Fold Coenzyme A transferase family I.
Amino acid sequence: MAIAPANPFEQLAFNLASLIEDGMVVYVGTGLPMVGALLAKKTHAPNITMVYESGGQDPWEGPMPWSVGGAATFRRSALTLEMPHSFAMAANGYVDICFQGAAQIDMYGNLNTHFIGGGFHDFKHRLSGSGGGNDLASLTEKVVLVGLQDASKFPAKLDFLTSPGHLTGGDSRQKAGLLGQGPIAVVSQLGIMDFHPVSKRMRIKAINTGLNAEICQACTGFELLMPDGEIEQIPIPPDDVLTVLREEVDPQKIFIQFPPRVK
């Protein structure tokens, strides 16, 4: 019997999982990045090592953590570190890829998690701040950005720069002395964006089935670059992958329920 097709959150998690290769060390963020990483581990990448910001290193399989500080992230971990040492995993080159969300993402992959509107002392909405975001953005080899894409969340100019991406583009990140490649992709409900290899401007790489470039641009506050060839169409998740996602990864629908639960 056919199962219900993927909702936008499930498609997003599937797209995140597709960027994880077997054997990678993955620095996992709260929410859909945890779903994507666990989905990858249960499907095509069983040998990844999952590193959590709060200190759990490669915990045993268990229930879906409610955050990167949840008890499940420490379940029979091979190693438990204090947070500075957990970030040092990235600084010392042990992390292959990390996932980061933000309230705002600009055309160069810079992130804002501080405030929306106004200034530092007269903001309209105060957010969580950096946490470990700046550490990961500055130190990890590859960064994948995660967010629900609309013009307010993908503005031409950030209200505050919390965590660096490609800064002002070109080689500005390297000149600033930051480690790693910086952002390599952005995964949203629309598909996957990447960054032009020279200008470091965000561009469309692949779009979810049923969408098009015009929809992507309408959901973005700056001009998206287009790829040289045809835009790749991302397939819908197959039934066997959706079954793993729904029954094994997040059976309580903590993060994949759509519309999300009202808190």
User: Anything to note?
Assistant: The CA atoms of residues 39 and 249 lie 6 Å apart. The domain at 8-249 is CATH 3.40.1080.10 (Glutaconate Coenzyme A-transferase).
